[in-house]
Amino acid sequence: MLVQPHLFIPGPTNIPEPIRKSMNVAMEDMRSGEFPKLTLPLFEDLKKVFKMKDGRVFLFPSSGTGAWESAISNTLNPGDKVLMSRFGQFSLLWVDMAERLKLNVQVLDEEWGTGVPVEKYAEILAADKGHEIKAVFATHNETATGVSSDIPGVRKALDDAGHPALLMVDGVSSVGSLDMRMSEWGVDCCVSGSQKGFMLPTGLGILAVSQKALDASKTSTMSRCFFSFDDMIKTNDLGYFPYTPATQLFHGLRTSLDMIFDEGLENIFARHHRIAEGVRKAVDAWGLKLCAKEEKWHSDTVSAILVPEGIDGAEVCKTAYYKYNTSLGAGLNKVAGKVFRIGHLGAVDEGMIGTVLFTVEMALRDCGVDVTPGAGSGAAAEYYRSTSTKSASGT
Ligand SMILES: *Cc1c(COP(=O)(O)O)cnc(C)c1O
Known about the structure:
- The chain is α/β, with parallel strands linked by helices.
- The chain is built from 13 helices and 14 strands.
- The chain has a 7-stranded mixed β-sheet, with helices on both faces. A 5-stranded mixed β-sheet has the order 1-13-14-12-11. The chain has a two-stranded antiparallel ribbon with strand order 6-7.
- Helix 10 runs antiparallel to helix 13 (375-387).
- It binds pyridoxal-5'-phosphate.
């Protein structure tokens, strides 16, 4: 194949060349005296990405799902009551895991296309005078529906109720792309993974943990082994790991963090917002709707776009893939066939979005959706052109 398939799924995301090249290194001795020179700064720099003042970050050789399991199994006890909400495939899977790990889950089922029901959380927490609820879970960015939720709002609900429950956040498709302020928002466990905002291959479960969650882990009785905080802490403090770490991914992470700090976190968030706005202009121009029901739920990392009645979203993805060499995200579970998704996180710029919008227009027309060729890509182009802050002279 002459041209790599254009990748617009919301993870794994495109890997910048400097990151990919930095991982092409020989195997090395993970017990050498030199190894901590690579690892110790990674831990410190990750804390900057999560904006943490205390606590620590764990790097598991797993996907993000492993970091979910680690967060639960180290801080809670079997039978603990926890508050969760389900409004998309990823929040659904987290509920499923919590149930399988024998937590007593109070689940709020919300319409897919909405997010964490902050007002309901506030009512439930205020009514829980005996503090039976040990943890509150929130999916920051529901990747299946393109919905972002209000994490500071969840913090406020806890604070207003004077409630001591831990706050557990799934930031797999937000951290590194959307603002995450662990300390300011009082997030106790924030779960992420390498293959989304960090622009790396899959293989690192990244888990940021507050001091409060570390303290909870000292008395928590749930079984854990591979994902144990204690085993990690014993070796991590010296820059080592309790088992063979993913050394090449660490080199990639080094480059990724360098690139993140070079661009600047706030600039990255602004770029994601602007890129996403362009996609939303295109959706409007096509006369289509997002799965996200209201503006406050709009995700700046992924857009799930509803196809008109009678059209199969899976056909749109298949057409884009086989006819136009472009991967879109398919609809999952309840929204299977009803949406297609454009991932716009990590290493993305205006021209890349132009490519995907142009392709989507062709695929939609092939599938019987009456959009005007160029309408969406044109609307995005005009938006990007008129809002660019760069000068034409490179200054
Ligand atoms: C991708 C994703 C996950 C799962 O992560 P894996 O790395 O695939 O295990 C969990 N939650 C959200 C919000 C995601 O986007």
